[in-house]
Amino acid sequence: MDSFNPHKDLPVASNLYTWRIGKAKGWAKAIYETDEKALEAAKEHCINNIGVGKHTIHVGITKTEPVDCKPIIQRYKQHLEYGWDNPQLFRAMAIPKEHWKRLTNEIAELVTDKLVEASALSSNTQISKVKHHYFTVSPSGIGIEQTGIESLLNQIKTEYRTSTTDWHKVDGLQTLLIQQAQQLIEQHQHPFVIKSLMVWQGYERTKSRLHIVCNGSIKAGRFSRDANDTLCKKSPSLVDEADNTKLPCIACLERLLKLSSEDEK
Asked: How far is residue 250's CA from residue 194's CA, in Å, rounded to a whole number?
């Protein structure tokens, strides 16, 4: 199996269903009696925990069987019969060397008998027969009715200011803002690219953000930027470029919206 299976070491009954989303490495720990119930649970997880976008849901079925322990026990018995660990033990116990071989074989037999007895408890669950489903979480599904970039900016600023921030909605707004920003850049053929950067803002304010970076020099009225500047800052001091944040820089987005609006005049 290519994914983490939470039931491998804690087996469950066969013919039960579970799910995982997209490229996630693990199956959900919860199990369901039908594939429909598993699919509904996965959809709910997409809405409540992942947010806006198209998601691939994998639904798998459990298959639990005893493990063939005989070859495993036989290999371990051979290991015990070699007695690599015994000399140090026997010396510490002051057992004469003439008894070592006999004791080693007897220990191997006793342990083997116990392992054979314990093998009756053996069972292992695998997840197979996977079905694939596609599910799209729409903006309206998480309470976002207006999806224009200006409206999205107003909504996210409102959420940031309130004491009862809906962080699930914020996550969706952030995703939509980056999508809308990319569309504006392509539509107006701006020489910009969206990059994950940590721009120096001061010890308490420096955060990883998705900034809009200039590929070349631009001038719009009194506003100007050189290549590698961000829309929010001239000659930015970069701390790091490696972080994969999904948090957009609001100042960059506001400037992009203003530049795009001026282009349309």
From this structure: 13
Q: Which is nearest to 8 in space by CA: 75, 57, 65, 70?
A: 65
Q: Say if residue 265's pLDDT is above 70.
A: no
The answer to whether residues 58 and 35 touch, using CB atoms and an 8 Å cutoff, is: no
**Which residue is listed with tokens 């947010």?**
51
Region 229-239 average pLDDT:
87
Q: What is the mean pLDDT of residues 77-87?
A: 91
Residues in the chain: 265
Q: How far apart are CA 238 and CA 25, in angstroms?
A: 33
Q: Are 137 and 49 contacting, i.e. CB atoms less than 8 angstroms apart?
A: no
What average pLDDT does range 179-193 have in this prediction?
Answer: 93
The owner of tokens 């940031």 is 160
- On the question of pLDDT at 1 being above 50, the answer is no
10 Å CB burial of residue 54 (0-12, 13-18, 19+) is exposed
- Which of 54, 86, 64, 58 shows the shortest CA–CA distance to 16? 64
Centroid of chain to Cα 58:
15
pLDDT at res. 264? 65
